[in-house]
Amino acid sequence: MAIMIPDTPRNFAAASLEGLMFDALQKLPNDYYVFHSFRMISVTNNTLHESETDFVIFNKKYGIICLEAKAGAVEYKEGCWFYASGIKMKHEGPFVQASLNKHKLRQYIERSHSAPLLDKCKFLHGVWFPSITAAMLNSMQFPPDADKNIVLTKEALDNPELYLERIYALDAQKKISTSLTDDDVKRMMREVLCPHFNVFPTATFENDLKKMVFHRLLKEQSGILNFLSEQKTAVINGAAGTGKTMIAIEKAQRHANEGEKVLFLCYNAKLREFLENNYPNSNIDFFTIASLACKKCNSSTANYLILKSWLDDMFFHGNFPYKHIIVDEGQDFGADGIDELEILELLRDIVTDESVNGTFYVFYDKLQLVQSKQIPKYIEDADCKLTLYRNCRNTENIATTSLKVIPERKPILIEGSVKGVPANIYYRTAETAITCLNEVIKEFVSNGIKNLVILTCKTESESVLANVVQNGKYQDKYLFTTCRKFKGLEADGVILIDVNSETFNSQNAMLFYVGASRARIRLGLIAQLDDADCREILTNCLKFEGKIRNPRRDLASALNSIGMIE
User: Fold this and answer.
1) Least confident among 244-258, 385-399, 409-423, 522-536
2) pLDDT higher than 60, residue 316
3) What share of the chain is helix, strand, coil (3-state, %, to 5)?
4) CATH code of 553's domain
5) Strand partners, 50
6) Domain identity same for 259 and 377
7) Is 219 contained in some domain?
8) Is 404 contained in some domain?
């Protein structure tokens, strides 16, 4: 049986009889390759050329035949070929069409790496009229551009090989004889007639595509500022990944572009440094309250009393340098005492006073109460409160994993969000954790993760990496810090280490949420947990209600991750 490509005929009109011809050609021996509806497309001189050959027949011993099929009634008159309907055929009839397709195939090969095969393979063409018999053919008078020796008739439906061999026996132009080796056949198939290839987007492209989706979602989310344009004060709540910081930056830039000065306050010193380096603007000043106090005190130590006195003076004399104040990570302020809260309330009063007529916006996440145990009063007492629900940072899988440690809070996943791959949780001992970390880093990098950080659920000094990290870098290239210090920041890939039974207890669970939610595309968890630990976490922390059969795998499933057991 011949090798048919494709192995089932393409769509065709029943009246064309191509189905019968396909079945007939299938009877050929297994050293024949038969291509049905063989299409060629090329561009020359800025012009697109298309052609289709009904059947291309390839045999190692004989060569290639381009076969044009014409079923039903066909008429030739006044130098033209017509269908029974009276419509004139294209390409000056089937013989010219078959010849042209033959030459196009040769030209295609000539332009390819398989050009040397042209001198080793005979190229011929023919026409198949399955509706007429050989006797009817012999009674016809053909025009000069057609020859009965290259015609197949109804009889070929029973034994096509006999007719094909008759065409193959003809001499081709330049007296070329077919002399193909097995390697030549493979090359002809692989490079010309039936190439095989895969088009896989690179890992980098996949990751970049995810970021494009995140950017689109963030742009849509930032539209909330348009609805708040007349609002002097607002507090905006949102879980990790909802784009709070970026929306806060957008608001700051809008005012800055209008020539108005903005004071941007955040709790995390690393976040302040990041924002200052990545969003420089002469009209925006980035500070923590501590760094603002140090600047006004001209000291390396923050003195909140001096800062408060300066603000009181600014308020009294009406010469405060900023018109707008934006507070990010608002839930964390006030943990170090009432001074910060008093300062924030004073700042709010200054910019919302009629003499300034500015705005005071606070962005916060009530789930990230890492520094304090309750929402600051200045947030609770706000008149205008909004909540962001769209996740514009994490993949759906990462967002789900990060929130699993907070059973009362379910992630709100929106249509069009990026699914991504599940997190992996690697169960390793403290002795094998570093070896595992190296393997995970290698896997992340091989999958296109460019920006990778390592976060510990403990302190740096308590981490398994305490003695191998220098200057805050692992292997001199990957940032290593705590979940707490990395608040407000993000990375393409996050590897969370030092995950143990204490990680999931009360306040520490918030650190897990903070750390895991920093990951945009990939998340890995390296955990020192035995079966007893997993069972305890499932029962008491995650409120798992099912039957626990395999504690470590069940915990991985409960965390929407894949368990990787050593």
Assistant:
1) 409-423
2) yes
3) 40, 20, 40
4) 3.40.50.300
5) 41
6) yes
7) yes
8) no
The pair of three-digit structure tokens given for residue 127, joined into one six-digit string: 């026409």
**What's the per-residue H, E or C state across 48-68?**
EEEEEEEEEEEECCCEEEEEE
Buried b (16+ CB within 10 A) or exposed e, 23-62: ebbbebeeebbbbbbbeeeeeeeeeeeebebbbbbbbbeb
pLDDT digits (tens, 9 = 90+) for 374-385: 667 777 777 788
**Number of folded domains in the chain?**
3
Q: Report yes or no on 378 lying in a domain.
A: yes
Angle at which helices 269-278 and 244-257 cross, to 10°: 50
- Whether 156 maps to a domain, the answer reads yes
Supply the DSSP string of 502-541, one letter for each residue: GGGSHHHHHHHHHHHTTEEEEEEEEE---HHHHHHIIIII
Q: Which tokens in the block code for residue 500?
A: 């143990």
Instruction: Of 41-50, 225-234, 253-262, give the lowest mean pLDDT range.
Output: 41-50
Boundary residue ending a domain (143, 172, 193) = 193
Rounded Cα distance, 290 and 531, in Å: 44
How much is the average pLDDT of 79-89? 79
Range of the domain at 484: 417-565
Two structure tokens written together for 178: 């077919």
pLDDT above 70 covers what percent of the chain?
90
Cβ neighbors of 236 (< 8 A, separation 6 or more) are 224, 244, 247, 361, 362, 363, 364, 385, 386, 387, 388
Task: Please indicate, yes or no, whether residues 345 and 267 belong to a single structural domain of this protein.
Answer: yes
Q: Which of 43-47, 140-144, 429-433, 471-475 comes out lowest in average pLDDT?
A: 43-47
Q: How far apart, in whole angstroms, are the C-alpha atoms of residue 453 and residue 270?
A: 14
Report which of 272, 232, 228, 269 is spatially closest to residue 247, judged by C-alpha positions. 228
User: Do 359 and 438 share a domain, yes or no?
Assistant: no
In a 13 Å sphere around the CA of 293, the CA atoms on its Cβ side amount to 17
122 and 35 within one domain? yes
Q: Both 178 and 209 in a single domain?
A: no
In the structure encoding, which two tokens stand for residue 214, read together?
């995140």
Please state, in angstroms and rounded to a whole number, the distance separating the CA atoms of residues 539 and 535.
6
Taking the C-alpha atoms of residue 83 and residue 77, their distance in angstroms, rounded to an integer, is 11
